[in-house]
Design brief:
The protein has 13 helices and 13 strands. It is an alpha/beta fold. Helix 2 packs across helix 4 and helix 7 packs parallel to helix 10.
């Protein structure tokens, strides 16, 4: 794998000079459609973001979890600021968002549009702040321990040469009970050097893709709960040059959520969602396997029981002792298992991966309408 300094320089070059808009991408990695259904407020928040910000934003998922009003949120690799500005609207005037990025060109776009979004959202003071820094070294960016309720990231961890350090730093800056909610690119096995050393594939978020089993291992080493798979989608490699280097290697875009919890003895329990969240009155999707129906009791394992009792979700769930012999739903960790069977074929992958995570500028507008508007 490339040395940290080389990898950083390559990524900065790619996102600072090579790419001008989504049309310049060689794969669909930064425009993958596989993400959870968006509620109205999230759609409106993303639609409200300035077109110039959308045009230079690259991501592979939806990194806006439910129940974030009033939260303090950190975005790792915030780029031009699309997710930050959308989250700015959703957290409200009492919440705040900090974006960290290492590329001056991307940060300049974010800086330029802070006042625009403050006025648009009707805030007396802006609730966004953008900081230049490296996501594997947040101390250098002067971000403190236990500072944030939620850390998000959209297809950026793969660009770091030290993924474990990124997760450790995210854990450090999260408050107890805080959440890391992020989308990224994963592979089944370790990638060969020919791929790891390809500068274009680094910029396309493929050469730095982490084997998904390493994510599970690193997360536990850093202290997080077991990652819970939220959504997954295949990556279609249509560029001939990229396909020639990658061969039969397979990649997926996946969104995971994990929490910072103090170790505590916990048994499985019976939980009931109270239906008190706006836009989630009937049901609350939690991961790829479990959606809580309002007023319906569900048996959950010790890990999920601890999450629901010791995070921001505690106020919207009733918890009671569970049955020792109850059957509970297990959330998978393997993002490849989660792929729909109909996506196994190349044609199926093409149908499923018409991008919608990034909004092109008028100069880069595709024939099909983007689903981000």
């Amino acid at each position: 794998m490339a040395a940290p300094e080389v990898a950083r320089e390559d990524v900065q070059e790619y996102y600072g000079k090579t790419l001008n808009c989504t049309k310049d991408l060689k794969t669909n990695v930064c425009t993958i459609a596989g993400r959870p259904k968006m509620i109205k407020s999230v759609r409106q928040a993303l639609a409200a973001v300035h077109d110039d910000v959308k045009a230079s934003f690259y991501g592979c998922g939806l990194t806006i979890p439910p129940h974030i009003e009033g939260c303090r949120i950190l975005d790792l690799g915030s780029g031009s600021g699309q997710d930050c500005f959308a989250i700015s609207k959703l957290v409200g005037a009492n919440g705040s968002v900090v974006g960290v990025d290492m590329t001056d060109k991307q940060l300049d776009i974010a800086y330029k549009h802070e006042e625009y979004h403050r006025e648009l959202f009707g805030y007396k003071e802006k609730n966004t702040r953008f900081v230049k820094g490296y996501i594997e070294d947040l101390k250098a960016a002067e971000l403190k321990d236990d500072e944030f309720d939620i850390v998000v990231s959209n297809c950026v961890v793969n660009l770091s040469p030290d993924k474990r350090a990124v997760l450790q730093e995210a854990y450090r800056v999260l408050k107890p009970g805080g959440e890391l909610y992020f989308s990224d690119i994963y592979t089944e096995n370790e990638l060969p050097d020919a791929v790891r050393n390809d500068k274009v594939l680094w910029g396309e978020c493929l050469a730095g893709a982490l084997p998904w089993k390493d994510l599970i291992s690193f997360s536990k080493q850093c202290g997080f709960t077991t990652p819970r798979l939220v959504s997954t989608a295949p990556v279609d490699i249509s560029d001939e040059q990229a396909a020639a280097v990658l061969g039969e290697l397979k990649f997926v875009s996946a969104t995971y959520r994990m929490f910072k919890l103090n170790p505590s003895p916990s048994d499985g329990s019976k939980v009931t969602y109270q239906g008190t969240l706006s836009e989630y009155e009937a049901e609350l999707p939690f991961d790829s396997e479990l959606t809580f129906k309002a007023g319906v009791s569900v048996e959950v394992d010790a890990d999920l029981s601890s999450i629901l009792q010791n995070t921001r979700y505690a106020s919207i769930f009733q918890v009671s002792p569970g049955s020792s012999d109850a059957t509970v739903v297990k959330c998978p960790t393997d993002p490849f298992i989660g792929l729909p069977k109909q996506l196994d074929s190349a044609e199926g992958q093409k149908k499923a991966t018409n991008g919608c995570c990034s909004q092109p500028s008028p100069a880069c507008k595709p024939a099909a309408k983007s689903c981000c508007s």
